[in-house]
Design goal:
The chain is α/β, with parallel strands linked by helices. It has a single domain, classed as Rossmann fold, CATH 3.40.50.2020. It is built from six helices and nine strands, in the order H-E-E-H-H-E-H-E-E-E-E-H-E-H-E. Strands 4-3-7-8-9 form a five-stranded parallel beta sheet, with helices on both faces. It has a two-stranded antiparallel sheet with strand order 1-2. Helix 6 links the parallel strand 8 and strand 9. Catalyzes a salvage reaction resulting in the formation of AMP, that is energically less costly than de novo synthesis. Keywords: Cytoplasm, Glycosyltransferase, Purine salvage, Transferase. Belongs to the purine/pyrimidine phosphoribosyltransferase family.
Length: about 180
């Protein structure tokens, strides 16, 4: 399937989670067997091109795509978790949200020897979460060679922020607006 055909599988829900927002819902994409397989295949190709030695996914929807890509490539999967979800001492990174802060965590033993890591999530908006994940993976000893997303909201500038931070960023599709 082409990126345009995949884009047609993404459902848009107006006014969620608040008025004026057009929520891009990937559940219709992952619920379409051929579409999901095609999206994973395209991401796997890009991860392979980036020299991936491990795939990291951001909780929660990044796990869906990231774990599938890692399995397809036969690579380790590194979960980037919300606080309190890992049963070992963790590396943690606080980051700013529009209203407040949040934290991401990773198992410090999940990445070894400066491995090339490709970061995957379902959507890139402002890039705050992805940038925090990149910093966290670097702290764990990884070299983030690329960030991949199913969807980019280019008007919010997140992919460009990643590129400015030295991480090439790609998405399978883009939706204008918020």
């Amino acid at each position: 399937m082409t990126p345009g055909e995949l884009k047609a599988l993404v459902r848009t829900i107006p006014d969620f989670p608040k008025p004026g927002i057009l929520f891009r819902d990937i559940t219709t994409l992952i619920g379409h067997g051929q579409g999901f397989a095609a999206a994973v295949g395209l991401m796997a190709d890009k991860a392979r091109e980036a020299g991936a030695e491990a795939i990291a996914g951001i909780e929660a929807r990044g796990f869906i795509f990231g774990a599938a890509v890692a399995a397809r490539l036969g690579l380790p999967f590194v979960p980037v978790r919300k606080p309190g979800k890992l049963p070992v001492p963790v590396l943690a990174m606080d980051y700013a949200l529009e209203y407040g802060t949040d934290t991401l965590e990773v198992d410090p033993g999940a990445i070894h020897d400066d491995k090339a890591v490709v970061l995957i999530d379902d959507l890139i908006a402002t890039g705050g979460t992805a940038l925090a994940a990149v910093q966290l993976l670097r702290s764990a000893g990884g070299t983030v060679t690329r960030a991949l997303f199913a969807i980019d909201l280019p008007d919010l500038g997140g992919a460009e922020r990643l590129r400015t931070a030295g991480v090439p960023a790609d998405a399978l599709m883009a939706f204008e607006g918020h």
